[in-house]
Design brief:
Mean pLDDT of chain B: 87
Low-confidence stretches of chain B: none
Strand content of chain A: 15-25%
Low-confidence stretches of chain A: none
CATH architecture of chain B: Orthogonal Bundle
Order of helices and strands of chain A: EEEHEEHEHHHEHEEEHHH
Radius of gyration of chain B: 20 Å
Number of strands of chain B: 0
Shape of chain A: globular
CATH topology of chain B: ABC transporter involved in vitamin B12 uptake, BtuC
Mean pLDDT of chain A: 89
CATH superfamily of chain B: ABC transporter involved in vitamin B12 uptake, BtuC
Oligomer: heterodimer
Number of strands of chain A: 10
Largest interface: A-B, 36 and 29 residues
CATH class of chain B: Mainly Alpha
Number of helices of chain A: 9
Structural class of chain A: alpha/beta
Shape of chain B: globular
Structural class of chain B: mainly alpha
Number of helices of chain B: 13
Strand content of chain B: under 5%
Chain lengths: 258, 282
């Protein structure tokens, strides 16, 4: 158990009449890179929200970074968990620049009543350099493209100095080049920092090659888990996505060609 | 121009009220504009008006009624805005029309002269007393002080509530705090500007500032400046042309907004995007 950082035991989550997770159990080791794959509505995002304390459990237990998640410790847990969501719809006239948005990542760490100091701004600038966005640091956040906004979101997440790195469909709605750039960046961050990473996607072509383990989800349940080579077979994907094997093969061929 | 009028106590009170009300309303306006909740403010100001009329009708302090009902409406509206599960416009429309309905119902039920009720409707900054100003001053200090102290939490919550929550900021508490301060601001400014007009003084200066800057700190300062400018200019025009003060202040703030919208440097964003589009096609 010593190197386990996430231990989900029989988690059930429900949004009103919809059951999003139906008794999910999962263990993640420190430094692991887990890809969570499945069709829309499989419960992938909900799984991430119970790891960062945003989701509410109906039953089961979630142990993250040494503590069981309760209704009262979500705030303190979230300070240690970096979360990158899908491309957000940001007001193009929002009066904030890129550097200020990345600084938000440090606000939780700073706590109430403390202002960012010189060290905090140095961390922000370092993270902007890491994601290749230093040249746009003073640009209004609403003026960035989707790919650039995701780089900023990753920089903001890293400025938080997280112990876990959660990414929820970070490449959704991005163009092909931006998708590849983000995937390479995520791989670079994981490799250089050995940051425990959970990467959710519904699109197999957006699954980083760096994943050492894949979790397949369907209808609120874990449908399979293991190494990408063993699990991501045409037959498994055909059943997971409810598609004929020939269609899965064609789709994967397309993904290779692009 | 005859300026001896400014030597009178009632005019000095009005100038001070316009200053304090301008700052407070415009500060709250920044939240309303950036958090995209103008209809929430409209609902709360009409709820405050209804509450004040309830106080007048039943014989207790109208400001207590105003504060209580605006907070009640915030308690109903807040969860809708926070969850974002359903389109809140329909619910807000129902609450808005309900508040306006009961306001006029209370007015109809009120015995005797309706002059007190009409003052709350249109505002009467020239009749503000020292105690009104003290109340407004306290609310101004609280609003500006809290924005100063919790600026970074407010900034993150304004930017994106879920993202603020995900880094450990109590964004829900901040949202309800903003709604509470909105209720207090509306209540404190109700006598000066009036229940029907107060929301314009909240929205217009902030909307004008929003046209001019990409810095949130500057937006707070510009908005407060426009709020005070609208208050004082409106007061001056009201005196010069002998027209209602609350309405003149609100019209002035609308003119300020229109001027900034016309000359907004942010309109160039479209030109900037156009340039990229042209470059992309080449």
């Amino acid at each position: 158990m010593s190197d386990i950082v996430i231990n989900i035991e029989n988690a059930v989550v429900s949004y009103r009449e919809d059951v999003a997770l139906r008794g999910v159990s999962l263990k993640v080791k420190s430094g692991g890179f887990v890809g969570i794959v499945g069709p829309n509505g499989a419960g992938k995002t909900t799984l991430l929200t119970i790891v960062n304390g945003m989701g509410k459990l109906l039953s089961g237990r979630v142990w993250v970074l040494g503590d069981y998640l309760t209704s009262g410790n979500g705030h303190s847990l979230r300070k240690k968990v970096g979360y990158v969501a899908q491309v957000q719809n940001i007001d193009p006239r929002m009066p904030m620049n890129v550097r200020e948005v990345v600084m938000i990542g440090r606000y939780g760490l700073l706590g109430l009543l403390r202002r960012p100091g010189k060290h905090d701004w140095e961390v922000v600038d370092e993270m902007l350099a890491l994601v290749g966005m230093s040249h746009l640091a003073q640009r209004p956040i609403g003026h960035l493209s989707g790919g650039e906004q995701q780089r900023v979101a990753i920089a903001r997440c890293l400025a938080q100095e997280p112990e876990l790195f959660l990414l929820d469909e970070p490449t959704a709605s991005l163009d092909w080049k931006a998708q590849i750039d983000i995937l390479e960046l995520v791989k670079l961050i994981h490799d250089s920092r050995r940051l425990t990473t959970l990467f959710v996607t519904h699109d197999l072509s957006s699954l980083p090659m760096a994943c050492d383990r894949v979790v397949l989800m369907r209808e609120g349940l874990i449908w399979g888990e293991g190494s990408p080579e063993k699990l991501l077979t045409d037959n498994n994907l055909s059943q997971l996505y409810d598609m004929p094997v020939s269609a899965v093969k064609a789709r994967r061929q397309e993904a290779i060609l692009v | 121009m005859e300026l001896s009028i400014f030597g009178y106590q009632f005019m000095q009170n009005a100038i001070l009220s316009a200053f304090l009300g301008g700052i407070t309303c415009a500060t709250i306006g920044v939240f309303v504009v950036l958090m995209h909740m103008p209809f929430i403010g409209v609902c709360m100001s009409h709820a405050a008006f209804a509450g004040a009329l309830l106080g007048l009708w039943l014989g207790f302090n109208p400001l207590i009624g105003a504060f209580a009902l605006s907070l009640l409406s915030a308690a109903i509206i807040g969860p809708l805005a926070d969850r974002g599960e359903l389109s809140p416009e329909t619910s807000l429309g129902v609450i808005f029309s309900f508040m306006l309905g009961i306001a006029f119902l209370f007015m109809g039920l009120m015995p005797g002269t309706k002059s007190g009720a009409l003052e709350l409707l249109w505002g009467s900054i020239l009749t503000n007393t020292r105690s009104d100003i003290i109340f407004l001053g306290i609310v101004t200090i609280v609003v500006v002080g809290l924005v100063f102290v919790f600026y970074k939490e407010i900034q993150a919550t304004i930017f994106h509530r879920d993202m603020a929550r995900s880094v450990g900021i109590p964004a829900t508490v901040i949202l309800y705090g903003v709604l509470f301060l909105t209720g207090a601001t509306i209540t404190a400014s109700l006598r000066s500007i009036g229940g029907l007009l107060i929301f314009s003084l909240i929205l217009n200066p902030a909307a004008a500032a929003y046209q001019l800057t990409y810095s949130m700190k500057r937006m707070f300062l510009l908005s407060a400046g426009f709020g005070v400018l609208s208050g004082w200019t409106g007061l001056l025009f009201s005196y010069l042309f002998n027209i209602p003060s609350g309405a003149t202040i609100v019209v002035t703030s609308s003119v300020v907004f229109m001027i900034t919208a016309i000359f907004s440097p942010k309109r160039k964003v479209k030109g900037w995007q156009q340039k990229l589009l042209v470059e992309g096609r080449q």
